[in-house]
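FW: tagging you since you asked about this chain on Friday. Here's the raw sequence from the shared folder, copied in full. Didn't touch anything.
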Amino acid sequence: MTNDLKIALIGCGRIAGHHCQSISATQGVSIATVCDLDIEKANIYSEQFDVPAFQDYRQMFNAVPDIDIAAIITPSGMHLEHTLEIIGDFGKHTIVEKPTFMRPGQLQTAFECAEASGKRIFPVFQNRYNKAVSRVRQAFQTGELGHIRTVSVKLRWCRPQRYYDMAPWRGTFSHDGGALTNQTIHHVDLLRHLGGEVDRVNATMRTLGANIEVEDTTVATLTYKSGAVGTLESTTAARPDDFEASISFVCSEGMAQIGGIAVNDLQIFTPDPSACEANSEDFKRIEGHGAVYGFGHTEMYRDIVAEFQKGKPYPVDQDDCLQTLKLLHAFYRSDEAGNWVDVDSDDESTRLGISNEDISNLYRTPRN
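HL: got it, structure written out here
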C-alpha cells in the first residue's frame, strides 16, 4: 500500500487533538475527518487540521467512503458498541483508546467480530513506547537486571469533584471505572509488560476524595508466576496536586524505577546510571495537553503503517490486551470477594463495565 491510510476520529475530547498531531507527524497516515456529537468540539479540529467535521458518524462514513481506520476516542463504556458497528456495518479497521474495552468478554466479542469481517483492532498502550519503558524491558530481556524480586506501583494524583462533574460518564462503573481503570491503567499494563504475568492479587478499594460510585483509591498486593511479589497503591484522592506516578523493580542484579508524568523519566537504573538521562523524555514541551500522553501515539501510528505497508504485526495482539484486562478485573474481583483471586480466570467484576442505558443514550448517535 503506497497511499496514506485515512483515519477518522470519532470523539473529539482533549486526547483527540493529540491523535491529530500524532497522525500529522507520521508518514503513511492522514486525517480524513473528525466527528463528535458536540459539533463544536469537532469543528475545533476540523479548522485546525483542515478536514471535514460531522456530528453523525454514519453520515460521515457515507460522505467519506475512503476512510480506512476509525479511531474510537469515545467514553470507555461506548467502545464495544462503537467498535462492533464500525467494523460490522461499515467495514472499517479500528483504533481503540485505553482501556480498550471495559470487560474481557467485550474484548473477545469485538475481536471475534473483527476476525469474521477481516478487519483489525489496534489497542492503544502508548506508554509502552517510552524510552524509559523500552530500556527497562530490554534489561529484563537480556538479563541485565537479573530476576525480579519485588515490584511497586505508586500513583498519587489529584482529581477533585469538579473533574468528575465534567461529564456524566466520569466516575461511573459502566463507562469509566475509577482511578485504577482510568488513571492507573498504563501502570497496570506495565506490571505485566515489564514484570511478566501476575498470578494472584489481593486488593482493597475505597472512595475517599470525591462523591462518585467508583473507587478513587486502591491498595493491593500481588504475586507473580515467576515468584516475585508486588504492591500497588493507586489514588486520585491526593490533594492539592499530582505528586507521584512510578513503577519500580528490585531485582537480583540491581534496581530500576520509572516515574515522571507518564512513565517517561528513568529515575533509577543501577546497572548503568548514565542510562537514566539518555532514556528519559521531557513531555512538558508537548503542545496542548500532550504532556499527559507523551510521544507514544506517534510511534503507535508508525506501527499501524508498518503492518499495512510492510506486513509487520502490530505489537499488541488480542491475547496481550486480554491479559491486561484480566489483571485489571482481578483487582476489582478481589475487592468484591474480600480475598485473594487468581488473575487467569474467566470471572469478571460484578461492577466494572456493567450496563447503564441511561448513560449510553447520552453518547449514542440517534438513528434517523
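FW: The mean pLDDT is 96.
HL: agreed, and The chain is about 35% helix and 20% strand.
FW: great, closing this out.
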